Task: structure prediction
Amino acid sequence: MRKLLFLAFLILVLGISACDREKDKSARLAEVNGESLSLEAFKASFGVEDWDTLPPDLRKRYVEDWVNLTLLAQECKNLKLDKELALKQRLDYAQKKVLANALISQSLSEIKITEDQLFSYFRIHQSDFQKPVKLYHIERIRLGDKISAENLLQQLSGGMNFYHALQQYSQENLRAQRGSIGFVEPASADSLFWQKAQALQLNECGIVNKDGDWYIFRYTEVKDGESVANFEEQRSEIRRRIILEKQEEVYQNLLKSIKARQQNIYYY
Result:
């Protein structure tokens, strides 16, 4: 899984960032053996707003990451490892998966869920929600910006130890408590963590933006509270369930629409 994620990232970054030698050098951030990283392409990969608010030291670090990644990719090609059938198949599959997920995500983003839909779902599945509210024990790492948080989340997903990351990166004084803010509930000041935790598995890391700060967090324990969550407290969970149910519908509709326009599909 880590290799596939790396390969997918490699395809995206190298694909969007390469530009011709003839382009204006002032628009370049780096160049490695004739392969250039343009400012415009790199901004697009991060999002213009995120890039503009990124501190200079972090910009430099991400450019250096691109340089290192490009060097490794070029060396891979020099050794002709990219000609090996197994690697070519993995690269091809990773690229197709990234493109397919982008298409599905675009279609899902266009789905509008109304208040009537939310409440109707709540009424139909009311028995699912008439249970003691879950309380989640949250551990978190505070970061200064979205890009740093997303980068750290990727490292944690790749196997980085949560507590090592906490000691190295957290910008709040919770190291002695191992990043713990205790059990959170829907009516607390940290209710946003409670809402996001519902979509995660035990010890799985997620990301939250709260009061201008970005957090990587996880829950390490869950227990029943004394109250029952109401409709407002279950709103995000209901929305998540509806989206999950629509994912398969979107996937099938996309395939049906695309296949209807294609004539050159063969099975052997």
Observations:
- The radius of gyration is 22 Å.
- The chain has two domains: 2-107, 132-231.
- The first strand starts at residue 28 and ends at 32.
